From TrEMBL:
InterPro entries: Lys/N-term_MeTrsfase_sf (IPR051419), Methyltransf_11 (IPR013216), SAM-dependent_MTases_sf (IPR029063). This is Methyltransferase type 11 domain-containing protein. GO terms for molecular function: methyltransferase activity. One of its GO terms (biological process) is methylation. Coiled coil: none annotated.
Length: 678
């Protein structure tokens, strides 16, 4: 199977190109490929019978190579009188059918429809050096002249680096004419290996002159695979595809050297059969030179979101443990089937060698590593659309040789598991010896409500130990329902706690009840409402609650705060929460941010509103669970009373184990590192 790399990254930053060309300095444009690299695309669109105009010919050997390979009706133009005389003298005898003329491409004297094809190797890029008015006028004049001189059905073939501004003006002009556009990636890798300077990938843009046809959809095509042409729905999709190919080219150059210690490079591999990436790759380098040079680590399906595989620190730990100088961590993406490890090795072997360190022998046998031979399996359960978060899927995953989990994934952020629950297969009868292994998902499963999928949820349960007692009725407001794992756990283990769960997104409520076995009753009431307005209405009515739990994710990936949205932790709303709580009341907050300064600012705000605060930092997550109270630090339920806390946690553990015998929740262990916020 052919695979195409791509990525979505900071590479699209508007400042990138400026930085790139500053690094290039005075190095000339030697990146457009020689005739052997351009041969296929040129001869695909230009035939020996064609009369061809080569614009900005310079002293390139391209025309003589074309002539010697059958394309002899060539007219070469350049604005330089010297180069035209030199080239005419060089080729007059040996290549008599090829002519050279001094001419300005923006004002040509040829008759309308004179040429079957126009070839431009780098001239457009050389002209379109900025977006100043005079430059753009010259480029528009060149386009107009090319369009005038081409015959109907003729091709304009442009060899270009297709920087953003070049793309914009080229595509805009010819889509306005309604001419079909096709883009090829020119394979120039062999030349690049000998070029030690920074370079960019080369593209061939093929534009065909047609009669104007009103209401005809614009034809836009891209050749990402040698044997396949993909037609796009519109020209707007070309930019992302071009950036993917440019990014991979830059990645390969970066990987010719060791990556800095704080940098990991990510990219994706597509198959020709699908627009959905088949593999996601992250390249990790050791800060040390090691004898073992290169390895590929295959992450089993369903485990790609674990800390070890989804974070920079986790992958670096994995790479150091394996002891390889460079490791490529490969995730198997949903929407594809994977037969076995051997099939994956065969599919990846050719492509991943392009990512090997420069000192890795070319014919070295690269080890493929994984956790056993279990690739994991995914079974789609449901899909739908959320007005707040877009498309989502519910899927069951089987990992570790048979453990089943149900997950909610929002497709706009597929690297994050929004909700997870452990499943228990309900077996109708004992499997007979010799019976074949089940191919599909279990026929009947139930949610294990004694299982909590993350440490922060366990910590939020443990926070109830700060209450005076769990033997009397406790009122709780939970903002952020998710799949309902937290309230379902409390509902089973601590029936004295009444929960009002508030969730803004009705689709999430539907998923929780239909697929995660959330069972509302008189002690567990679900409200579809805005959490902030709900709390404010309670406060306005004079209502008090014993516990307020806040577990809401931020939908904006561009901010440093992952959970909760900033409005929930401004001083005004924190003060509203304080007024909602009873005298012994407790705030439990899931705080997640990769920016330590942002996290500290929020902790400072909490301390300014609440008299007592404690925090629990979770080692393998970015989550910090915060416990806050309006009680004075010297009160009977003080966060600093370790003896009382220890007793309360032990009692909680006993209740949990008596309710859920096989629960993974250990509140004593999780709270070992809780500390006062000072």
């Amino acid at each position: 199977m052919d695979l195409l790399p791509s990525s979505h990254s900071e590479f699209s930053s508007p400042d990138y190109w400026e930085r790139f060309f500053k690094k290039r300095g005075k190095i000339p444009f030697e990146w457009y490929g020689e005739y052997p690299q351009l041969h296929n695309v040129i001869h695909k669109y230009i035939s020996p019978s064609n009369t061809v105009l080569v614009v900005g010919c310079g002293n390139s050997a391209l025309s003589e190579n074309m002539y010697d390979n059958g394309l002899q009706n060539l007219v070469n133009i350049d604005i330089s009188d010297i180069v035209i005389r030199q080239m005419s003298d060089r080729h007059r005898v040996k290549r008599p059918k090829m002519t050279f003329e001094k001419m300005d491409v923006t004002a040509m004297s040829y008759p309308e429809g004179y040429f079957n094809a126009v070839l431009d190797k780098g001239t457009l890029d050389a002209l379109l050096v900025s977006e100043e008015e005079q430059v753009l006028q010259n480029v528009q004049a060149m386009f107009s002249e090319v369009a005038r001189c081409l015959r109907l059905g003729g091709r304009y073939v442009i060899i270009s680096l297709l920087q953003d501004h070049v793309q914009k003006h080229l595509l805009q002009f010819f889509t306005n004419l309604g001419w079909p556009i096709r883009i090829h990636r020119v394979q120039t890798d062999s030349a690049e290996e000998n070029n030690k300077s920074l370079s960019m990938p080369v593209f061939a843009v093929v534009i065909t002159k047609l009669k104007p046809m009103p209401n005809m959809p614009q034809i836009v095509e891209v050749c990402r695979f040698e044997d396949r042409i993909d037609r796009l729905e519109g020209v707007q999709y070309l930019s992302a595809i071009i950036k993917d190919m440019q990014y991979y080219h830059i990645v390969r150059q970066q990987l010719s050297k060791r990556l800095p210690g704080d940098q990991q490079v990510s990219l994706e591999l597509h198959s020709a059969a699908s627009v959905v990436p088949r593999y996601s790759l992250t390249v990790v380098d050791s800060p040390s030179v090691l004898a073992n040079k290169f390895a590929i680590f295959i992450v089993p399906q369903g485990r790609e979101t674990e800390w070890l595989f989804s974070t920079d620190k986790g992958r670096l730990h994995l790479q150091e443990s394996a002891g390889f100088q460079r490791m490529v961590v490969v995730s198997l993406n949903r929407g594809h089937s994977f037969e076995n490890m051997e099939a994956i090795k065969a599919e990846l072997s050719g492509k991943v060698m392009e990512l090997a360190p420069s000192d890795c022998p070319q014919k070295a046998e690269v080890p493929f590593l994984s956790i056993g031979e279990d690739l994991g399996r995914r079974f789609p359960v449901s899909e739908g659309n959320s007005s707040a978060s877009g498309r989502y899927i519910v899927e069951d995953v089987e990992i570790n040789g048979g453990q089943l989990f149900r997950r909610l994934i929002f497709l706009q952020n597929q690297g994050v598991v929004q909700t997870e629950a452990k499943l228990i297969e309900v077996r109708k009868k004992k499997k007979r010896r010799g019976q074949p292994t089940r191919e599909g998902p279990p026929e009947k499963v139930r949610v294990d409500k004694g299982y909590l999928p993350s440490d922060y949820l366990i910590a939020m349960v443990a926070g109830l130990s700060f209450l005076p007692s769990l033997d009397k009725p406790v009122s709780c407001v939970l903002v952020g329902l998710g799949g309902g794992g937290f309230p379902s756990f409390i509902q089973g283990a601590f029936p004295q706690v009444s929960i009002e769960a508030v969730e803004l997104d009705p689709a999430v409520v539907d998923v929780a009840t239909n697929w995660f076995d959330l069972q509302p009753d008189e002690k567990l009431v679900v409200h579809v409402a805005d959490g902030i307005e709900f709390v404010r209405s309670l406060v306005a009515s004079g209502t008090k609650r014993d516990v307020f739990v806040l577990d809401v994710d931020c939908k904006d990936p561009g901010v440093a705060l992952s959970c909760p949205p900033a409005v929930f932790v401004d001083v005004e709303f924190l003060s509203t929460i304080a007024r909602l709580l009873t005298d012994d009341g407790l705030l439990i907050l899931n705080l997640a941010s990769r920016d330590d300064a942002v996290k500290q600012e929020i902790l400072d705000r909490l301390h300014s509103v609440f008299a007592s605060c404690a925090r629990l930092d979770l080692e393998e997550d970015i989550n910090t669970v915060v416990f806050a109270s309006t009680q004075h630090p010297d009160s009977s339920c003080s966060f600093s009373d370790k003896d009382r806390l220890s007793t309360a946690l032990s009692e909680m553990n006993s209740r949990i184990k008596s309710t859920f015998q096989d629960s993974n929740v250990d509140v004593v262990e999780i709270m070992e590192n809780v500390k006062l916020l000072e």
